[in-house]
Amino acid sequence: MRIDILTIFPEMFDGPFNHSIIKRAREKGLAEIHLHDIRRYANNKHKRVDDYAYGHGAGMVMMVQPIADVIEKLQSERDYDEVIFLTPDGSLFNQSGANQLSTLSNIILLCGHYKGIDERIREHYITMEISIGDYVLSGGELAAAILTDSIVRLIPGVLGDETSALSDSFQDGILSPPVYTRPADYKGWKVPDILLSGDEKKINNWLLEKALEKTRERRPDMLGE
Ligand code: ADE
Q: Which residues does residue 82 pair with via DSSP β-bridges, in sequence order?
């Protein structure tokens, strides 16, 4: 899968994309992530990428030209399945959205800033608008990093154990059960006996029961309650 990220702060991605699972996915060639600095495409002397909003004093708005030029350049090189704008007024992202996006071949992620982007970008290029939650970030970069992380880990072959993504919270529509590792007794805090019993059926029933208990307590909305 190839992900092209359009941003005015490419350095913000150095951390999240150069460690752990995303790093490994890139090294294995399972995910290609390309960062594009929007400012480099600005065709004005001072490399401006924003200007005042017409009609009201809402603040600065990202200009059409630099963004349009990057998108058109990329689209002339290959076909894209989606051109996604990260914005708090987009549709709310969730695990099923991550599953769907992880099956695509090429996507563009556009990170907004200031008061937003010129509406004409949305009208003419954007095919999907996504919010990662009902709160406002100072830009789309962190949202794009979160989206990318949640998608890339689902690409087959990225996680060592193919089943581990399947046991994530949300994949079954419920939260995940508690997990324990050695020692079985730490300062008298014991791992539940059933997990040491070796009885797979009983263990699975217990795990399901615990997962449901947690979901009912924390996220009754997931159970339609
Ligand atoms: N940009 C600013 N806030 C955002 C959010 N909640 N989701 C996606 N992009 C954003």
A: 107
Q: How far is the CA of 35 from the centre of ligand 1 (A)?
A: 18
**How far apart are the CA of 208 and the centre of ligand 1, in A?**
34
Domain ranges of the chain: 2-152, 169-223
HEC string of 28-69? CCCCEEEEEEHHHHCCCCCCCCEEECCCCCCCEEECHHHHHH
pLDDT averaged over 10-residue windows placed end to end, the chain, 225 residues: 98 94 96 98 97 89 98 98 98 97 98 93 98 97 98 94 75 92 98 98 96 97 93
| Nearest alpha-carbon partner for 203 in 218, 212, 192 | 192
What is the C-alpha separation between 147 and 82, in angstroms, rounded?
A: 14
CA of 135 to the centre of ligand 1 (A): 7
Instruction: Quote the radius of gyration of the chain (alpha carbons, Å).
Output: 22
Ligand 1 site residues (CB inside 6 A) read 86-88, 131-133, 135-137, 140, 143
pTM above 0.70, yes or no: yes
Most distant pair of Cα atoms in the chain: their distance = 71
Q: For residue 97, what is the enclosing H or E element?
A: helix 95-101
Q: Could you tell me if 43 and 107 are in contact, meaning their C-beta atoms sit under 8 angstroms apart?
A: no
User: 169-223: what CATH class?
Assistant: mainly alpha
For 2-152, which CATH class? alpha beta
